[in-house]
Structure formats: structure tokens, C-alpha cells
Amino acid sequence: MDFSIKAFDTKNTIAAAKSGCIAVAVFDNKKLSQAAKALDQDGQISAAVKSGDITGKPGSTLLLRGVGAAARVLLVGMGSDESISEKSFASAVGGMLKAFSQLGAADAIIALPMEDVKERDAAWAIRTIVCAAHESVFRTDGQKSKKDPAPAGVRKITLATQSTAETKTALLQAQAIANGMDLTKELGNLSANVCTPTYLANTAKKLARDYKFEVEILERKQLEALKMGSFLSVTNGSEEPPKFIVLKHMGGKSKDAPVVLVGKGITFDTGGISIKAGPGMDEMKYDMCGAASVLGTFRAIGEMGLKLNVIGVIASCENMPSGRATKPGDIVTSMNGLTIEILNTDAEGRLILCDALTYAERFNPAAVIDIATLTGACIVALGNHNSGLFARSDDAGEQLAAELMAAGKQSSDTAWRLPIEEAYNEQLKSNFADLANIGTPGGASVTAACFLENFTRKYPWAHLDIAGTAWKSGGAKGATGRPVPLLSTFLINRT
Ligand code: BES
Ligand code: MN
Ligand code: ZN
């Protein structure tokens, strides 16, 4: 997909624009948008709307020919003209892209009312269009011998809006975020026999080459020397070597404290000896989506050349049962010295993250955010709409949570806050070690977050549980690329 911005005015009219297709909005009260009016010189558009051929319902479309200088004009329903809601705009974009995919045209001008969405600006509209356009042509057929049919239709899009510093920046950022999401989705969808810890490490190395990041891959020996007993306990049952990935984008001032993103990279979670049930277990290939979102966000910030210091830390391994696997009741010592009784080997995410979070101390971070497909209970609590957001209730935690919530709203990749409180920590008591790796029944997402909190007291910290948002199940099974938009927007806002 190729995007550009072009402003049309009285000299440079939309009616004179040559294009395979121009998309303009019509409303459900039969009114035409400005661009539609400008194209309606011989009354064809108003006639089509009057006749009822298009209702103006958000996402409805009607294709006309012989209007203006363009080969085609696509009328796109935008709902009420009194106020265009986010939802109407997004549905309109969806309908438009579906029509674009079936056109004989390769290029199009989008002249939708991008400045008029309620409580949103043109930058939001641009991001919405770019991300939806990427999604519409995204394919996961790398592992099929017979590839899916290549997406047909429009590949080159001109956005008809004011060409200002803001809109140009918005377009660059939107493309970077969309490309980042594509990487996150590709990695998530790959099967676990291909997407191993080594594969993630190689992806990080490739990103480092492409965008001049520093990269370091720590191997088992080094992890042993660092005394990451908790992380290493999860790798015991697996034949695949663990990888601990450190990526650095030092785009800010050298003395500025970095933001550290910590990703859960379990490339397959069988549950270990506390083995999971069979149905749907294939979806545990997605248990590396936290790691994939860190890599996708790095692709985005690399492409943007973001002026901020950002460090990515990924702990990656498989969680497998075997004669060597960790057993329920085993006690291990984490990197920060706390001992952990592993009552359930399926609560492995927190066991790898706690050592990664201790490792992050060495960067004297301004903030650390971990991203993890951590608990099935988070899907019970929030469904597939919001990621779970956790932070302490001190000043630093409140501020970080507010920033992340705002970045989620801004990028339509929302999170919802859940508590971190001492009372939940009580649920993690063990008779034999400093901490148990599962809590007593109830609030499993919260006790998981509270477990991590024990390892994050040296810096401002937040945790995103993306179990419900990182991928879709069922017929539309596939990674979503979330929360790359939230994370990228959070980082952009910090510059
Ligand atoms: N990766 C899973 C969490 C998960 C499960 C995410 C299903 C998305 C869908 C995690 O490692 C896990 O198994 N968590 C357990 C924790 C429990 C043993 C306390 C869970 O959620 O069941
Ligand atoms: Mn698990
Ligand atoms: Zn897991």
C-alpha cells in the first residue's frame, strides 16, 4: 500500500482530479459531503442519493462512472451529518476498502470528511484509514504451498486533506504503526515449530540491522550467570534453547532515562506438567504476542526515527512437559533473590517476566511496561475489547497508567485499569517459599499482576495483560497487532 496527501482547492479541484476512483461521503439524510457536492456538477450524485440507490447508512457504498475527471466515484455512506461518530467513520472506511478491493482501479483518492469526526482530528482519521487499509490486504499464507489470491484492487491511495506539518507527520506515524502491526501479526500467526525463541532473536537482529538498533542476545550460559533461576525453570522441559533479547533504540539524549518494554515470549505454552486441555491448545502459539508487540513497536519507532531512548527486553522460551520439566511444588530462586514455589507450571509467564523485570533495573528506567498474554481470567474480565492495565497507585504509577489509558484512547487500542493492592499479594503466600506462583482462587489476573509487582519496586511500572486482545479465535483466527498502536502512541507522546 502506498499513501500520499494532497490538498484540493478552487484551483486544483477534485472534479478535475484524474484517478481510478474518488471516494466521497453521503449522509443518511440524503445530504452530500463537501467533496461529493464539488463532484456533483451534472447532478448524478444527488440523483443517485434521491433515488435511494444508497441510503447513507455507515459503510454502504455505490459506484458511479462518468462523474468528474476520475474513472469512477465511490459514494460512501457516513451516517448522520450532524455529527460523524468514530464508529460511523470506521464503518465507512471498512465499506470503502471492501469496494476498493473489488475495483479494476489500482489507485484512488479518499475525499472523506477527515476533519469532521466528533472529538477526533484529521490525524486520527488518517491513522484509521492507513491501519484499516493494511488490515484489508494482510495475508498469512507464508506457510501455504498454494498462496491466497493476491489482494486485487486499489494499492495507491491519495488522502484528500490539508497538507500540513501535522497531517504529514500523522501519515508517517500511521504507516510506521501499521508496518509495526504487520510484523507483530506475522510473528503471532507463524506456527510454533517455525517461530521459536531463536526465530524471535533472529527477527530482533534483522530489525537491528534495518534500523540501527543495538541488539544483544543472551544465551543459557549467560542467563545462568545472571542467576535467572525463575526464567530458566520454565525452559527445563524444552529442547529449544531459550533466548533473552535486548534491543536498544537510543534516539534521545544520551543521559535521558529510557523507557523499557518487556515482552513475554513463550513461543508455545503447553502448560508444562500442569498440562492444558487439548481443544484450542494450538492458540498457545500466540503466547509470544507480548514479545511480538515489542518487536512491532520497535519496527514502528525505528521507521519514525523516534527521538526517545527505548529499550526492548524479551524473555523467550517454550513451556513443555518432559522428564526434565519443572514439577508442581518445585521451588526456584529468581534473579532478585526471592524464592518462588511453582504450584502450577502453567503460570509460567510471570516466572519468565519476573527475571526480565529484575534485569530491567540496570537501565535506571524512566518507566518499565511489560506486555504479556498472561491470564485467561483477563478475557473473562474484559473480553476482547480492552487490554488489562495495571500500575501501582502511587504518583508515578497513576501518571503512567493515565498516559497509557490516554494513548489507548487516542489510537483506538484501548486498555482498562484493574487494581494492584496489597490484599491480593496476600493470596500469593507460600508455606515453603517467599512467594507462590499462583494465588488462592479469585482475581487471577490481579494476583498475576501483583506477583510481577514484587519485582518492579525500583522504577515506575505498568503491566498490560493482552490475553484477550492480541489475537482472535474462531473462523477469523489471527493476530491483531495489538497493542502496537497503544505502545507506539504512548512513546510518541513522550517525545
Ligand atoms: N498463556 C496463558 C494465558 C492465556 C490463556 C492467555 C488462554 C490467553 C488464552 C498463561 O500462561 C496461563 O496459562 N495462565 C493460567 C494461569 C493460571 C494457572 C493461574 C491461566 O490463565 O489459566
Ligand atoms: Mn501458561
Ligand atoms: Zn502462557
Short description:
The protein contains 15 helices and 19 strands. It is an alpha/beta fold and 495 residues long. The strands form four sheets. The chain has an eight-stranded mixed β-sheet, with helices on both faces.
Features:
single chain, binds ligand BES, 495 residues, alpha/beta, 15 helices, 8-stranded mixed sheet, Leucine Aminopeptidase, subunit E, domain 1, Aminopeptidase, 6-stranded mixed sheet, binds zinc ion, elongated, binds manganese (II) ion
**What fold name goes in the CATH topology slot of the largest domain?**
Aminopeptidase
Structural domains: how many: 2
CATH level 1 class label of the largest domain: Alpha Beta
Strand order of the largest sheet: 7-8-10-9-13-17-14-15
The CATH superfamily title of the largest domain: Zn peptidases
What is the SS-derived class?
Answer: alpha/beta
Roughly what fraction of the amino acids lie in strands?
A: 15-25%
What gap, in angstroms, lies between the N and C termini? 28 Å
Molecular structure report:
It is built from 15 helices and 19 strands. The chain is of the alpha/beta class and 495 residues long. The chain has two domains: 2-160, Leucine Aminopeptidase, subunit E, domain 1 (3-Layer(aba) Sandwich), CATH 3.40.220; 178-493, 3-Layer(aba) Sandwich (Aminopeptidase), CATH 3.40.630. The strands form four sheets. An eight-stranded mixed beta sheet has the order 7-8-10-9-13-17-14-15, with helices on both faces. A six-stranded mixed beta sheet has the order 1-6-5-2-4-3, with helices on both faces. A three-stranded mixed beta sheet has the order 11-12-16, covered by helices on one side. Helix 8 packs antiparallel against helix 10 (349-359). 54% of the residues are buried. Bound molecules: ligand BES, manganese (II) ion and zinc ion. Residues 269, 271, 346, 348 line the site of manganese (II) ion. Ligand BES binds at residues 269, 287, 344, 346-349, 373-377, 438, 444, 467.
